[in-house]
Amino acid sequence: MSLYLPEELTESVYRAALEPDTWPDVMRLIDGRFPSTAQTFYFLELAPHRVRPVSLVGIEPGWVHTFNALYFAPDNPWIRLTRSLHRPGVVRTNERLDAYLGEAGVLYRSAYYNDWMRPQRFRTTMGSTLLAEDGLVANVTLFRPPDMPTFSDAEVGAFEQLSRHMTRSLQMALRLEQPHKDSASTAALDALPQAVAMIDAQRRVHYANATMEALLRRRDGLVLRGGALDATHEASRQHFEKYIADALCVARRDSPGTAALTLPTGDRRHLSVRAIPFMPAKGPVLPLRPVALLMATECLGHQSVPCEALRKLYGCTPAEARLTQGLVDGQGLRQAASRLGVTYETARAYLKVVFQKTGVHTQAQLVAKVLGDCAAPTRTNAGH
To answer: Which domains does the chain have, with CATH numbers?
Structure first.
């Protein structure tokens, strides 16, 4: 298994920081990349010895109630070594625990394993700490049964990548929760490869990462006018204003979100702009005021790719071709599924088949390959 992370998974991680109710979706996508029988995200309160669940998939409610007494028991090596192992960036597995202690099978002699894990048929784990401060530890942990293999080195490496994304996501949420504080967590936004800005209903920029700042300096596609974000091309300005207004209306209606907006730039390129809105809501890590997280990605200019071309190039079925066409046209997977008239899960199944037929691993790679392959005949004909 390679180190890649599905683009849909990383995007969902950042969205969940803004919309905490979507963490179960993240857990489902994690299960797709790292198959396991339980996927958990929770906060450990070390002083009162208590777990605060965020999303527990595969754990029955009765077992949640017995967790505190057994996990915080003195013979549990994970809690005994909490200062060493509950640190951001440290991925924990059974094998790494044995290597750290120089003792084989130490977890299997604890009450935590024998009275909590074993009755649920959990044998091996892979976990990581996302944040650890002031006696509060944010953990994500996956559990596998005895009849599944242990987590491979490749899975551990990919999980380390995922953990970094989840840590940045939580840092973003904490910064939004405490906007008056000068926090180093802005580095979480600066680390993103996409151009990212936080804007309000008046399109005023409250924060822009380094990539967005560079984009705005070029004044190509997006520009600042009087402190407000605007489209560079006059023909697109009204569409952009309406797009942001609609995004914040979506937040107030508790709707799933808006599709991407295409803004033209120079040199036959365009910006794919997506607004992720949120409003104050219940949850442990939340923003205080309505803001939209705006993400902009530069793309090659293109016209819609004919479905027939996709069928000839890759052997796609009509449904697979229409789904791929929607993704190339800038639709998200949920929007493409809706327009195709299938469920999101069915669309994901189609997409996996398309990945196999095209030899790619992510939606971004798929779009790039399709555009490149479909442009190739044009370049060849031009040469003649």
So the answer is: 7-177 (3.30.450.40), 192-300 (3.30.450.20), 307-383 (1.10.10.10)
